[in-house]
Design brief:
The complex is a heterotrimer of chains A (about 325), B (about 120) and C (about 400). Chain A has about 325 residues and is an alpha/beta fold. Chain A contains 12 helices and 8 strands. Chain A has one domain: Thiamin diphosphate (ThDP)-binding fold, Pyr/PP domains (Rossmann fold, 3-Layer(aba) Sandwich), CATH 3.40.50.970. Helix content of chain A is about 35%, strand content about 15%. In chain A, a hairpin with a 2-residue loop joins strand 7 and strand 8. Chain A is globular and about 65 Å long. With about 400 residues, chain C is of the alpha/beta class. Chain C folds into 2 domains: about 250 residues, Thiamin diphosphate (ThDP)-binding fold, Pyr/PP domains (Rossmann fold, 3-Layer(aba) Sandwich); about 140 residues, 3-Layer(aba) Sandwich (Rossmann fold). Chain C contains 12 helices and 16 strands. Chain C has a 6-stranded mixed beta sheet with strand order 10-12-11-14-15-16, with helices on both faces. In chain C, strands 5-7-6-13 form a 4-stranded mixed beta sheet. A 3-stranded parallel beta sheet of chain C has the order 3-2-4, with helices on one face. Classes of the chains: A alpha/beta (about 325), B alpha+beta (about 120), C alpha/beta (about 400). The interface between A and B is large, with 48 and 46 residues. Strand 2 of chain A pairs parallel with strand 9 of chain C, so a sheet runs across the interface.
Chain lengths: ~325, ~120, ~400
């Protein structure tokens, strides 16, 4: 495992001067993922429409210190799979000598929802590419609308905390499991609270022969309404409350990467965030209870998949 | 790969693009041929609070470098080497993740006031 | 060396693709162009081409992957029809705007609903303002010839735009026709090796593509596309002349058939132009001064050539195999009529919508059109600008 001293000497492939909001999780996530590539490695980056794309390529400036392509919202998977197919063809014909890696970034909108078909197709076809979902749990670029990654109960602009309906009514889609069901060589869920975890998983994803998928929890200060400097602490709590478990699926084998020792109630994750504030008003306790039940159920299912004893630590 | 020719009357300029250029001078299809040129675009004026380095406390762990969303922590030979104030947006994450509290966030207004006061004294 | 062969339109197009030997093809089957995809995949799996064939899960991904490949620096193609093209619609615009020289055949078919698998041009007309070049083909021979030329047009440095090669679903795509195909080496030499101006896979000259424009640059980048389309008119003719040298067949922006001394003209694209020419010949034998104008390029719209060819006629009927639902007739009618406006020559221009959903265009129908034009010239009156040919009213 490389040290930060070593990693800081690797070429920056996502440079400053981009127009993401101050403290945006995407800047951190993208830098961590691309930092897993060595200086002599070549990469082509694809990107779905979203905050990352519109903030990083405002003509005539690009923050991508590598080759980059954006096509549309729902087709980052298909687009980068086409780049990879071209690489395969030209390499076979001897027209390209270098080894080149391929990675696509999409938000949860471009990945869980509108881009799911394109991503599924690319994964099923077995392209040698990495797809990274930067999950901030809503369509932040258009102004914080709910997605299928939005947590139950969250206040978004299309699932507002109203007097009759208190926020989003549905639990999150289990995207990592959906991707694992494609039987691809590598699927992982990670979070920036452990840079080592992100680094290790990004490295593995780039190294496997075939498609790899990584889901990163990438907080949005605007959409989540937490104190911006607290991002790493908040992500840590997401992992400790089991809201965002760290795991990987290598060639079909599920493995839990971190098992929190204590039982940390979900309130700890909800409380610092404005999007959940209404849940703490009297009469909404049952929603928090439902969120906790969902988190617990998903955790138990995950333990079973990972071959661990499906039990929760005492409360 | 084969020789490139981007000069066919639809995209002469590759560098120094400005909004007064006409359609012939701008790059074809809005392609950008200078990777990473966003670092010539400054976002430092977004900042309302400024990270300040406390040299004595710094252990050069580079956690701040790792968590900066704007790649605005300089490092040389694996050591902390200052902030890139041209790009730092003042999010304050570096100060929060620093295990030795070697980064303080100071209000830009305060810094301006102090600077003004110093100039007045002189 | 020329080879005379019997092929369907789809087979002819697939053969052209084999000879072009693109680096990447990403395609999804849809009636009536499915056979192209099938035949091409057999070329791939039998080692007849060097192509990486991407079996995408939809037409949207077909165009998206083709774009990725083209941007990467590959010669890349796709193929579709009808709903498939409609599903691609969004990214067809992006492909044109990113100036990717993608060639894609379209076997024209009606759009739903009601679902219908037969020929009309609603699919192609849906992308007429997307910025792609649209060539139309009367028969399998022209579909084949257009495919080969399309590569040169698309990749020409003054153009750099996608080119769609249209041919009628079932009528051309599935009917067996006798045609001449060039030998493989002639095609290879004619299209030449592909040298992209930029490529994502060129590690020495990295670039960002598909970037974000504000109002300070977007307008200029759009105008570059207009300029490229203007250039395309010249390039289509140049490539057509060069193609004549290897094939003996000449292609321009339009085909003017017996128009020199004509009083009446029918303007029609694709297979129906064949029927129109047949009727034209019969009426000419009876001494009537009739002609046919067949646009080969619909985008860019060859308005100068059309005006030049029609300037002497007294009445024109534009036959559209698509509706616009504007209540002002079909898409080509609007363009032709607009083009003729500045002549101030009092040419009567009327519209006939025909053949929707594969409805047969009978020779009697074409003859009726000429009769109507004769009446218009005689009376100087047009009682109805837009008529529906073969519709039960």
């Amino acid at each position: 495992m490389a040290t930060l001293k070593e990693l800081a000497q690797v070429n920056e492939r996502f440079v400053g001067g981009h127009r993401l909001c101050a403290g945006c999780g995407h800047g951190i996530s993208v830098r961590m993922v691309l930092n897993a590539l060595d200086n002599d490695e070549h990469v082509v980056v694809g990107c779905a429409t979203g905050c990352l794309e519109v903030a990083s390529t405002i003509y005539p400036y690009t923050a991508w210190n590598c080759s980059f392509i954006h096509n549309a919202f729902e087709n980052a998977g298909a687009t980068i799979s086409g780049v990879e197919a071209a690489y395969k063809s030209l390499k076979k014909q001897g027209k390209i000598k270098e080894d080149i890696k391929f990675v696509a970034f999409g938000g949860d909108g471009g990945t869980y929802d509108i881009g799911l078909q394109s991503l599924s197709g690319a994964m099923e076809r077995g392209h040698n590419m990495v797809y990274v979902c930067l999950d901030n749990g809503a369509y932040m670029n258009t102004g914080i609308q709910r997605s299928s990654a939005t947590p139950l109960g969250a206040d978004t602009t299309t699932s507002p905390a109203g007097t009759v309906v208190p926020g989003k009514q549905q639990p999150r889609k289990d995207l990592a499991a959906v991707m694992a069901a494609h039987n691809i060589p590598y699927v992982a869920q990670t979070a920036i609270s452990s840079w080592q975890d992100v680094h290790k998983k990004a490295k593995k994803a780039f190294e496997v022969d075939g498609p790899a998928f990584i889901n990163i929890l990438s907080p949005c200060p605007r959409g989540w309404r937490y104190n911006t400097p607290d991002i790493v602490e908040l992500v840590k709590i997401a992992v400790e409350t089991r809201f965002w478990p760290l795991f990987e699926v290598e060639n079909g084998k599920w493995k839990l990467n971190k098992k929190p020792k204590k039982y940390v109630p979900i309130e700890e994750f909800l409380k610092p965030q404005g999007r959940f504030r209404h849940l703490f008003a009297p009469g909404n306790e049952h929603i928090i209870k439902r969120i906790q039940e969902e988190v617990d159920q998903r955790w138990l299912a995950l333990l079973e998949r990972c071959g661990e004893k499906p039990e929760l630590p005492p409360r | 790969m084969t020789p490139f020719n981007r000069n066919f009357g639809q995209g002469r300029s590759r560098e120094g693009i400005t909004p007064d250029m006409n359609w012939r001078e701008l790059t074809k299809a809005g392609n950008i041929y200078e990777p990473g040129n966003a670092n010539t675009y400054e976002t430092g004026d977004w900042r309302t609070i400024r990270p300040m380095w406390n040299e004595e406390r710094c252990i050069h762990c580079l956690i701040c470098w790792r968590y900066c969303p704007d790649a605005s922590i300089f490092s040389t030979d694996g050591k902390f080497d200052g902030f890139d104030y041209k790009h730092c947006k003042g999010c304050g994450i570096c100060a929060n993740v620093c295990p030795t509290h070697a980064i303080d966030m100071i209000s830009e207004d305060e810094i301006d006031e102090q600077k003004e006061a110093r100039e007045n004294e002189e | 060396m020329k080879n005379r062969v019997a092929l369907t339109g789809n087979e002819a197009v697939a053969q052209a693709m084999r000879q072009i030997n693109p680096d990447v093809v990403a395609a999804y089957p849809i009636t009536p162009s499915t056979e192209v995809v099938q035949m091409f995949s057999s070329f791939v799996n039998n080692g007849k081409v060097d192509t990486e064939f991407v079996t995408v899960e939809s037409e949207h991904s077909a165009m998206s992957a083709t774009m990725g490949a083209s941007a990467a620096g590959a010669r890349a193609m796709t193929c579709t029809s009808s709903q498939g093209l409609a599903y691609m619609f969004e990214v067809v615009y992006v492909a044109a705007s990113m100036r990717l020289p993608i060639v894609f055949p379209v076997a024209n078919r009606a759009l739903s609903a009601p679902i219908n698998i037969h020929c009309d041009h609603s699919d192609a007309m849906g992308i007429k303002q997307s910025g792609v070049i649209q060539l139309f083909s009367e028969n399998a021979q022209e579909a084949y010839d257009n495919m080969i030329q399309a590569i040169r047009i698309a990749e020409h440095p003054d153009v750099l735009l996608p080119v769609s090669v249209n041919y009628d679903g079932f009528i051309t795509s599935h009917a067996l026709d006798v045609l001449e195909i060039l030998d493989d080496d002639t095609v290879k030499e004619f299209i030449g090796e592909y040298h992209p101006q930029e490529a994502l896979l060129n590690v020495n000259e990295q670039l960002s593509m598909g970037n974000f424009d504000m109002y300070d640059y977007y307008f200029e980048h759009k105008y570059q596309q207009v300029a490229a389309m203007e250039n395309a008119k010249r390039v289509i003719e140049e490539v057509g002349k060069e193609y004549a040298k290897i094939s003996g067949r000449t292609y321009g922006l339009i085909e003017a058939y017996k128009l020199d001394d004509a009083d009446m003209a029918i303007v029609v694209m694709n297979s129906a132009a064949g029927s129109a020419k047949g009727v034209c010949d019969e009426l000419r034998a009876k001494g009537l001064k009739v002609g046919v104008l067949k646009p080969r390029a619909f985008r860019p719209f060859p308005h100068e050539a059309i005006v030049d060819a029609l300037k002497g006629v007294k009445a024109v009927a534009v036959l559209d195999r698509a509706e616009t639902f504007s209540t002002l007739g079909g898409p080509m009618f609007a363009d032709v009529r607009t083009a003729l406006y500045d002549l101030k020559a009092d040419i009567k221009v009327v519209n006939y919508v025909y053949g929707l959903g594969g409805r047969d265009l009978r020779l009697e129908d074409v003859e009726q059109v000429y009769n109507d034009l004769g009446d218009i010239i005689k009376t100087g009156k047009v009682d109805k600008f837009v008529r529906y040919l073969g519709l039960r009213e």
